[in-house]
Amino acid sequence: MYPSGPPFPWNSQPCPVEASTLYSFASRCFHFIHEAVTILMDTAILCFGILPWFWKVSGNLVAYLGLDAENEIMHTLSFLAGVMIWSQLPDGELREKIEKLAASLKFPLKKLFVVDGSTRSSHSNAYMYGFFNNKRIVLYDTLIQQCTNEEEVVAVIAHELGHWKLNHTMYSFIAVQHTVIPLQHLVNFGLNLVSRTFEFQADAFAKKLGYAKALCAGLIKLQEENLSAMNTDPWYSAYHYSHPPLVERLAAIEEPDSKKED
């Protein structure tokens, strides 16, 4: 840990340095094995033509279901159907709270999904997709499992809705990435700076909706489960990280008149 970083807020737990170090070492070993297996799988796929065969089968499935076989979007979704398994979020208090939050922000929520992410990774995530008045929210089952209560899950969703409300997706589309190769490092630093600013703004948005305490608790829980660095050197994180470290985010949320909200 770097002494130049801000102090830990009162409600955060000490950084599990030993667990984080062991996790990092294990991840590197797994990455080496994963890359070796991936090379073997890719070689088999290329030699035996598995990918073209599976693409043809997915196209036949689209036609069998009575859909337009020439529709590339439907064809692609059918191709990916076996990779990410989505299911509707069951009725209950969590679903009601998310729908109520979306309605209060006039977010055109059409469907609410849970994706089976625990079988592939312990990483937690939530995101939204869709165009115009046809939006969907997807929760990883690991997010629901790792959060202590529904309020923390809703706080994470409030953060994601902040990205939508503040037009961050549109700004990201406008910002053309990885086009100026000679200045790639400078461009990446600028993009990370913009992304980190967006994260602070989305946190502030959730705070204004009254989810400050729940958001802090949710962020701490997710950070502990992900075993990533919590309090890195400010200059290192500013260059390498697209998201601010946990300590900076908690400090900004708890500060009464945070400059991050400007």
Automatic annotation (TrEMBL):
The keyword Transmembrane helix applies. The keyword Nucleotide-binding does not apply. Residues 90-175 form the Peptidase M48 domain. It is a multi-pass membrane protein. Zn(2+) binds at residues 159, 163, 199. Signal peptide: none annotated. Keywords: Endoplasmic reticulum, Hydrolase, Membrane, Metal-binding, Metalloprotease, Protease, Transmembrane, Transmembrane helix, Zinc. It catalyses: Hydrolyzes the peptide bond -P2-(S-farnesyl or geranylgeranyl)C-P1'-P2'-P3'-COOH where P1' and P2' are amino acids with aliphatic side chains and P3' is any C-terminal residue. It holds the Pfam family Peptidase_M48. It comes from the Eukaryota. Binds 1 zinc ion per subunit. GO terms for cellular component: endoplasmic reticulum membrane. Its cofactor is Zn(2+). InterPro entries: CAXX_Prtase_1 (IPR027057), Peptidase_M48 (IPR001915). It is found in: Endoplasmic reticulum membrane. Its main location: endoplasmic reticulum. GO terms for biological process: CAAX-box protein processing. The active site is at 160, 203 (proton donor). One of its GO terms (molecular function) is metal ion binding. Proteolytically removes the C-terminal three residues of farnesylated proteins. Belongs to the peptidase M48A family. This is CAAX prenyl protease.
